[in-house]
Backbone:
């Protein structure tokens, strides 16, 4: 019973391509997040949706666009991929905005 | 600016050798402090939430404590399976109604048998 799942696990692509990462949670949570973890393991929030409403939109290039079709799903679309986008992207969810967050297994994105 | 700093960056212990990890924070109003464990190639796993100074929480060999400026994660008689990166994160009042977490850079713990 995977609580927060992400696909794909690994993504290798060339500069300039467009790619998407999908996230699903089966915990019945209201809030979902996207994080980026760089090579130094530093975890930084990118976006958050609460009840399908965007509530956190950090300073992220507008090539990154989140989409929440329903409360259980949050996808991340990235246009015109750049070398610097290489990182591990984590999806997370929480019961509500102020509760502990549960993370997915991550998607390792490599841009060549 | 809200900030979270963890120390040490890396810690090597012998099995059974107790120690503590530190998380110092500078925030304008603490809403909550969270500890996570992250194994290589996996997502962070939630351990504890602390809300006010003096609060303590325990789970097996781990005990988390909180003061007005820092939190400690005490590891008693660690085993090799406790090897992981431990992440600290805070929710600050300055983040308004978003619940945004600010993470520290983590402490990588290695426990040798």
Residues:
């Amino acid at each position: 019973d995977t609580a927060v799942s992400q696909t794909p696990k690994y993504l290798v692509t060339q500069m300039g391509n467009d790619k998407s990462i999908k996230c699903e949670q089966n915990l019945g949570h209201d809030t979902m997040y996207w994080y980026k973890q760089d090579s130094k393991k530093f975890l930084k929030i990118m976006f958050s949706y609460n009840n399908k409403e965007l509530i956190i939109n950090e300073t992220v290039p507008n090539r990154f666009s989140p989409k929440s079709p329903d409360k259980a799903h949050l996808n991340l679309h990235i246009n015109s991929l750049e070398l610097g986008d290489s990182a591990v992207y984590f999806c997370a969810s929480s019961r509500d905005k102020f509760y502990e967050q549960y993370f997915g297994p991550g998607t390792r994105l490599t841009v060549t | 600016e809200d900030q979270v700093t963890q120390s040490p960056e890396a810690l090597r212990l012998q099995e059974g050798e107790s120690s503590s990890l530190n998380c110092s924070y500078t925030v304008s109003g603490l809403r909550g402090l969270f500890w996570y464990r992250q194994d290589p190639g996996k997502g962070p796993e939630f351990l504890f939430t602390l809300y006010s100074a003096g609060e303590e929480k325990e789970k097996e060999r781990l005990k988390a404590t909180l003061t007005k400026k820092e939190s400690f994660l005490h590891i008693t008689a660690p085993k090799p399976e406790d090897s992981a990166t431990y992440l600290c994160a805070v929710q600050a009042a300055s983040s308004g109604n978003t619940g945004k977490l600010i993470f520290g850079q983590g402490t990588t713990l290695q426990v040798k048998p």
Q: What stands out?
A: Chain B touches chain A through 25 residues (CB under 8 Å). DSSP finds no helices and eleven strands in chain B. The longest strand of chain B covers residues 30-38.
